[in-house]
Design brief:
- By secondary structure, this protein is mainly β.
- It contains four helices and 14 strands.
- The protein has helices at 43-54, 91-99, 101-104, 177-184; strands spanning 2-3, 12-17, 21-26, 61-62, 65-66, 69-73, 82-90, 105-115, 122-131, 138-141, 148-159, 163-170, 207-215, 222-226.
- The strands form two sheets. Strands 1, 2, 3, 6, 7, 8, 9, 10, 11, 12, 13 and 14 form a twelve-stranded mixed sheet that branches. Strands 4-5 form a two-stranded antiparallel sheet.
- The two termini are 31 Å apart.
- The model is unreliable at 1-10 and 57-66 (pLDDT under 50).
Length: 238
Amino acid sequence: MKTRNDRNTPPLDIIYEDEWIIVIDKPSGLLTMSTGAEGEVTAYSLTRAYVEGRRPQDRRRGRYGRQEQGLFIVHRLDRDTSGLLIFAKDIRTKEILQEHWNELLLSRCYTAIVEGHPAQPEGTLKTYLFQDPISLRVWSSPKDNGGKLAITRYRTMKQNQDYTMLECELETGRKNQIRVQCEGMGCPVAGDRRYGAKTNPLGRLALHARRIVLIHPYENEEFEFSSKLPDVFRRIKF
């Protein structure tokens, strides 16, 4: 399902929607939420406009009682990262998802095209991430530097002379986690000038949130959401 607010905004792909959550496929270049600039178009503003345009005027009273409706951010993606993004459609669902995120989120996988080749075709990256409060750049250390522990499992999917396509599964969800850790192993994500990349073969950050496996907060069933790689990823031949 797609919706377009006007010809100047990117299309919004709806992967899944029910009474409580909506999952979208965010394009690269679109912020998750506003930086405060007036009239700024974001994944949140587009999704909220879509939801409110379909919602009845009367508040819903579902089997879980009357709830404060709206649209609520559960997690975020960097502006230049594309892929799956989950919003809650009422505040109670948002609180349940955020408070029990580690138990409900079973898997969160990204596809990354990185420069060069990792020393090992697969492995686990375990470092501590610290964000500089001035530059807002995130730094990685193998030793506890007072930052947050970040764990990423990766495996090689394809490679050619210059690039490697990795599947990266997050055990933790820290800001810029994959980007920083890939830089730390000497294989920055292609197009990521901020974290060491020297090339930009896709004309964008080569990182896509491809798959999420989640226990539904009310149905108590395992849901799997997936997004195909953007066509631009085919520019690199493997």
